[in-house]
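Before relying on records like the one below, remember that each one covers exactly one chain. Contacts with other chains, cofactors or solvent are not represented anywhere in the record.
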Amino acid sequence: MCIENLQSGPRGEEAHLAFVAYNPIPRLPLIRCPTLVLSGRKDAFISHLENVKKMIPGSVSLIIEGQRSGGLTREMPLEFAEAIFKFLD
């Protein structure tokens, strides 16, 4: 993520700040499509996984062992893809 911020120019950090400032909780119950709540076991926010799942009607949750969510696509791409394909099937 650091490289992306540097490449995006002098305002690159604004996206990060917006992410930190945004509170998605009031909008989660409005989601009406099939939703997979996915986390790595070592993610800092894993303690919120079940609460998020409960807030999104009909959602399912999945934990991928041994990784933080931020590193799943880079460090465990096969496990990540398998989880997505299984959900979509």
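The longest strand covers residues 36-40.
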